[in-house]
Write a structure and sequence with these properties.
By secondary structure, the protein is mainly alpha-helical. Helix 13 packs across helix 14 and helix 21 runs parallel beside helix 23. The two termini are 26 Å apart.
Length: 729
């Protein structure tokens, strides 16, 4: 799998995790709002102290074996069956010890235990095994690549907590104990469902061997400081505040931390998608990790700006007027969280390279800074000082990761955090994919009548096939062209086209083979990955199509005169929409795959009802110009563009003409490209939306794209004839 494909699939899996996490975030905010309104600052503080007690105790006693189990499963040292059983045994054993220690501690006379009832502290101990199990089972699901299941169950856990909180705290008025019971019941239900999902991956659970425990424990002990610090960093405010502050101040600090900390779902989602890829690669995928860091830096920054901009009126609405003074805490915590979010994906590199000690060092620095800074600044500036101390600690801990990553990979701060043009292209591609997924969802097709599906030209993706709904004429023509193209591809081995499984023109339905593991050629070229080989292969493939594609006489319909010129040469059977968006590279074989064998709708009416009204024949320049024009497509003032598009266009043209053995006057091709660009832009302006939306999403993109294309076309006129003759170097 090449780097472009890996980054693309990582963005896809990140999107899956992030989408389900965002849904959970909505429920989590609902829970925080309910707790604030139902418990008020004092009760909210008591609840936070109890949860902190259980969370920290679980981590202090537990040796971080959950990460060890995940790592050795990804590295294939443990089977799924043995990893699952190892997880149960190690988590439950450490939880039993933690509960025993916690029960004895609740009888100690200390100011910490005066912040809530002793019964609430003891009830919170039930969270320890549940927290451990839900964490390790979630890690195993992500290690198996089952991100959708993991995300869905995480969302379920949050939703269940919200429902139980409303019932037990709001309806029955059980106060702090009710809030704890809501957590307990929500986690218990989630553990049951997670276990069921994992057990489907194995026939029978296997009892772990002694060596398995040794491996897991070794990794866990090296990760122990990081695990301890991760939880302590989240709860450090509660720990320090429980020593020195009143419950009301603890409640304010807890609410602010919970609200601003929600932005960490972004780096956490990215890290979840990265970890299996990094752990499975001997080099740790540093470029992929840096891509995740840049994405986190940009998106979290935007999220924090939006949150702070509306915080002054959102906080009183969401948490009640009693929490209005927490707004200043958000502003103080935000800078540190922003830096931490950008450094969080770097943890995946060191954990995947079996170097969890680096993560432990980073977390240890952050913990030490929190312990030293929070009491000092709290004494000087109250809870505002404590918030500033947590922000500074985040920066110091992140600095350790950045320095260590640079020392290991040679990648400096600029390469790790500053956005690149290819990052914007990936986000743009992900947006297109998301829109496509929504359009191709089964519900979209099921909700449409056959007439609506044909009118909208819907496409439905099934596991084994692609179903397209077109007019009868389009079905007949595309089925014929696709079937013959598949034969040409198989015979020449220059490309591959999907097999036609079924064609029913009367119903307006075309079923073709679904080819998996494809990445769009345009997306690959945006990253410069194997670009010259692929565009040269595209040129040779098009030459084979023009040479061998023969259609029935009834389907040999010429293009309109607007797309043909007097010096364009002899007509050939066209692909019709040959561009970088309809060509794909197979991640399994590396071969070129060509899809969508219908003439572009800009060259005819999409409502044509007879085969003799759909153009299929035209000058070979038409397909050549379609591909060249797609190389120059840009957006956002030319930011998202294919590197060295003119050079790739020249390689493509030379490859094509070399294979067909023609000597073509560059001046004639230049004139056709100029005419094609003018005609294409005119048709696009007629059919695509205009006004504010177009100006917002594509400012000057067409002007730049067609300007560069025209410049390239004009440069061809000055080229000597042999420029497009001879072998490709």
């Amino acid at each position: 799998m090449n780097a472009a494909t890996s980054a693309s699939s990582t963005f896809r899996d990140t999107g899956i995790v992030l989408a389900t996490t965002v849904l959970g975030l909505v429920g989590s905010l609902g829970t925080q709002s309910c707790l604030a309104w139902f418990l008020e600052p004092t009760g909210r503080g008591a609840f936070a102290v109890c949860v902190t007690f259980a969370s920290v105790l679980a981590v202090v006693v537990g040796p971080a074996t959950d990460r060890g189990v995940q790592y050795h499963m990804i590295a294939r040292d443990l089977s799924v069956a043995r990893a699952t059983m190892t997880a149960y045994v190690t988590v439950l054993a450490s939880a039993a010890a933690a509960c025993a220690i916690g029960w004895s501690l609740t009888g100690v006379s200390h100011s910490f235990f005066s912040k809530a009832d002793s019964g609430s502290f003891r009830l919170s101990l039930a969270l320890i095994p549940l927290l451990g199990l839900t964490t390790v089972l979630s890690l195993l699901l992500s290690g198996l690549g089952r991100f959708a299941v993991m995300g869905a169950l995480s969302t379920f856990s949050i939703a269940a907590n919200l429902v139980f909180t409303v019932l037990l705290v709001g309806l029955f008025g059980l106060g702090v104990d009710g809030a704890l019971w809501a957590l307990i019941l929500g986690y218990a239900a989630t553990v049951i469902l997670q276990s069921g999902a994992l057990w489907k991956s194995v026939d029978v659970l296997e009892w772990p061997r002694r060596a398995d425990f040794s491996r897991v424990l070794s990794y866990g002990l090296r990760f122990y400081v990081a695990r301890l610090g991760n939880v302590v960093n989240v709860q450090i405010g509660m720990i320090v505040m429980a020593w020195v502050a009143a419950p009301a101040e603890i409640g304010l600090f807890a609410a602010a931390s919970a609200l601003v900390g929600r932005v960490m779902v972004i780096p956490d989602s990215i890290s979840t998608a990265l970890q299996p890829r990094v752990g499975a690669d001997v080099n740790g995928r540093p470029d992929l990790v840096a891509t995740g860091a840049r994405a986190s830096f940009a998106t979290v920054g935007a999220g924090l700006v939006a949150l702070l901009a509306v915080s002054s009126f959102v906080v009183p609405i969401l948490l009640s007027e009693a929490f209005a003074s927490a707004v200043s805490l958000l502003w103080l915590m935000a800078p540190g969280l922003w830096i931490k979010s950008a450094a969080t994906p770097l943890r995946c590199y060191f954990m995947g390279m079996n170097r969890p000690g680096v993560v432990s060092l980073s977390t240890g620095v952050e913990v030490a800074a929190n312990f030293a800074g929070m009491p000092l600044l709290y004494q000087r500036a109250g809870i505002d000082g404590a918030a500033a101390a947590t922000s500074l600690a985040c920066v110091l801990g992140s600095l350790v990761l950045v320095v260590a990553f640079h020392a290991s990979t040679g990648m400096g701060l600029g390469k790790v955090w500053l956005l690149r043009r290819t990052d914007l292209a990936r986000l743009e591609g992900f947006g297109r994919l998301l829109r496509l997924r929504l359009l191709l969802a089964p519900a979209a097709v099921a909700a449409s009548s056959p007439e609506d599906a044909i009118r909208s030209h819907l496409t439905h993706l099934w596991p084994d096939r692609v179903v397209k709904y077109l007019t009868p004429a389009l079905v007949a023509v595309e089925a014929e062209k696709t079937a013959r193209a598949a034969e040409i591809g198989a015979a020449t081995r220059m490309f591959r086209a999907p097999r036609v499984l079924a064609a029913n023109p009367a119903r307006g339905r075309l079923d073709t083979e679904r080819l998996h593991g494809l990445v769009q050629l345009h997306e690959v070229l945006l990253r410069g990955a194997d670009a010259e080989r692929l565009v040269a292969a595209a040129g040779r493939a098009l030459a084979a199509i023009h040479r061998q594609l023969v259609l029935p006489e009834a389907m040999r319909v010429p293009l309109s005169s607007a797309w043909a010129t007097p010096d364009a040469g002899v007509d050939v059977a066209l692909h019709g929409d040959f561009n970088t968006y309809n060509l794909f590279a197979s991640t399994e074989t590396g071969e070129l795959v060509i899809l969508d064998w219908e003439t572009m709708f800009l060259a005819h009416s999409p409502t044509c009802n007879t085969p003799d009204s759909i153009p299929t024949m035209g000058p070979r320049y038409f397909d050549l110009a379609s591909f060249v024009a797609s190389l120059f497509r840009r957006s956002w003032f030319g930011i998202s563009r294919i590197p060295d598009a003119p050079g790739l266009a020249e390689i493509f043209l030379r490859s094509y003409f070399s294979d067909v053995g023609l000597k073509v006057p560059p001046a004639g091709l230049s004139r056709y490209l100029l005419d094609f660009a003018f005609q294409l832009r005119s048709e696009e302006r007629k059919r695509e939306p205009s006004g504010f939306t177009r100006l917002l999403f594509h400012p000057r993109s067409e002007t730049i794209a067609y300007g560069v294309l025209r410049a390239f076309a004009e440069s061809l006129a000055a080229r000597p004839l042999e420029r497009f003759d001879g072998p490709i170097e």
